[in-house]
């Protein structure tokens, strides 16, 4: 046996090493130079460490010290029964299913009309959509972070939807990203692009699912453009297994009189990082961000949000609730920026957390940077245990301690669900809450 040591490549080295092969695998090559430039920026930046202010509470070593396959096997044996378990009982929904990165029409149901809907890969290959990419692609996701550059260098799989002027899509659309039948740890860089034109309306649900015991790392970038008097809701249902890592980067740009909501429900996955960035580019805009996190064991969920109030007479609302058990770790860092011309801004930010065990912890840091003088801005956070008086009140009425705790925790989290318009989704979240709290609750 040779005494020469075997060099194990770091994830950064794997990314650089595999890029030429990735480019050669593409049918479309018009983004090659942009992809190469993005890879060079990633190479220069490298993965963030705990020395970086934005990642001081979140270590990525567990992710970056593994080896990954960059070319997932396309074959799968997903059954209808397995898919049915992922659905929300949404017979009246549309759904779009990606398995191992590829759009599976036979596992999807698409009845939407009068819209431009394509898989991201197909859109890249279709020259008639080239002008759309020139106008929108990577225009608000260009924050120069390691993960957005990495996604630009490697993105291939994902969802593209353009809703024309005054078109209202009545049915919610559920996007499933499924990984299955992978013998090696697998790396996906998914990309979503949603354009909601003036007066249009759409609701999206997004969920990721790993069916294997091997690890999956998903680096997702979503760009949402909401035009005047339009409404876009994007709901993220994060309830994956313990061999899943998710880095989610979502950017929303709004024009005047628009409403955009991003709800993030984090219940599963070994490590989840949500980077959410709202850009208000007109007056009379409403932006809503809600989150519920319930985790245990040694899971980590990190929410980083930012709202840029750039114009007057706008509102933003952030409400994040966390329940942490075992040795789990939660992070919340919310930023609100108010430009000097953004008078009459109304910004609300709240993060409330309950620790159920001595090993659980939360690092929370709400921040305001205000350069206007006629505003209403508030922020706050709480960290604590269950209210003993309320617990005593319930137990005095014959309710067991376990169920009393669960009822209080359910009520604690419930107000972060109030702006969900999709009843099957609200019911699904309620059921997951009950399962996580290990109690039967009638809905």
UniProtKB/TrEMBL annotation:
Pfam families: SUFBD_core, SufBD_N. Residues 183-412 form the SUF system FeS cluster assembly SufBD core domain. GO terms for biological process: iron-sulfur cluster assembly. InterPro entries: Fe-S_cluster_assembly_SufBD, SUF_FeS_clus_asmbl_SufBD_core, SUF_FeS_clus_asmbl_SufBD_sf, SUF_FeS_clus_asmbl_SufD, SufBD_N. It comes from the Bacteria. PANTHER family: PROTEIN ABCI7, CHLOROPLASTIC. Belongs to the iron-sulfur cluster assembly SufBD family. This is Fe-S cluster assembly protein SufD. It comes from Chryseobacterium hagamense.
């Amino acid at each position: 046996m040779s005494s020469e040591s075997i060099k194990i490549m770091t994830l950064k080295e794997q990314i650089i090493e595999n890029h030429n092969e990735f480019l050669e695998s593409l049918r479309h090559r018009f983004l090659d130079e942009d992809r190469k430039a993005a890879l060079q920026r990633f190479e220069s930046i490298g993965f963030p460490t705990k020395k970086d202010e934005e990642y001081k509470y979140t270590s990525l070593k567990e992710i970056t010290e593994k080896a990954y396959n960059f070319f997932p096997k396309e074959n799968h044996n997903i059954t209808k029964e397995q898919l049915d378990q992922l659905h929300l009982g949404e017979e009246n929904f549309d759904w779009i299913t990606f398995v191992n990165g590829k759009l599976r029409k036979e596992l999807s149901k698409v009845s939407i009309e009068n819209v431009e809907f394509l898989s991201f890969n197909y859109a890249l290959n279709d020259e008639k959509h080239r002008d759309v990419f020139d106008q929108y692609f990577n225009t608000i996701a260009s924050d120069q972070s390691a993960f957005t550059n990495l996604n630009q260098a490697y993105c291939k799989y994902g969802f593209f939807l353009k809703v024309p002027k005054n078109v209202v899509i009545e049915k919610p659309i559920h996007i499933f990203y499924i990984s299955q039948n992978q013998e090696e740890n697998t790396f996906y860089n998914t990309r979503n692009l949603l354009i909601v034109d003036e007066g249009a309306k759409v609701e999206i649900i997004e969920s990721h699912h790993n069916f294997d015991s091997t690890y999956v790392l998903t680096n997702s970038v979503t760009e949402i453009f909401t035009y005047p008097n339009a409404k876009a809701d994007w709901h993220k249902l994060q309830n994956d297994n313990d061999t899943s890592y998710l880095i989610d980067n979502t950017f929303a740009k709004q024009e005047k009189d628009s409403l955009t909501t991003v709800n993030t429900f984090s219940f599963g996955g070994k490590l989840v990082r949500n980077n959410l960035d709202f850009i208000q580019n007109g007056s009379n805009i409403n932006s809503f961000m809600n989150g519920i996190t319930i985790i245990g064991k040694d899971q980590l969920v990190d929410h980083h949000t930012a709202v840029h109030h750039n114009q007057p007479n706008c509102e933003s609302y952030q409400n994040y609730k966390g329940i942490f058990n075992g040795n789990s770790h939660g992070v919340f860092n919310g930023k609100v920026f108010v430009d000097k011309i953004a008078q009459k801004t109304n910004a609300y930010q709240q993060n409330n957390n309950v620790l159920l065990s001595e090993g659980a912890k939360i690092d929370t840091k709400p921040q305001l940077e205000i350069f206007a003088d006629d505003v209403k801005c508030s922020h706050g956070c709480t960290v604590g245990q269950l209210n003993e008086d309320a617990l005593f009140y319930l137990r005095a009425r014959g309710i067991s301690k376990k169920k009393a705790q669960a009822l209080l925790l359910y009520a604690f989290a419930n107000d972060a669900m109030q702006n969900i318009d999709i009843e099957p989704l609200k019911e699904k979240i309620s059921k997951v809450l009950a399962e996580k709290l290990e109690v039967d609750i009638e809905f």
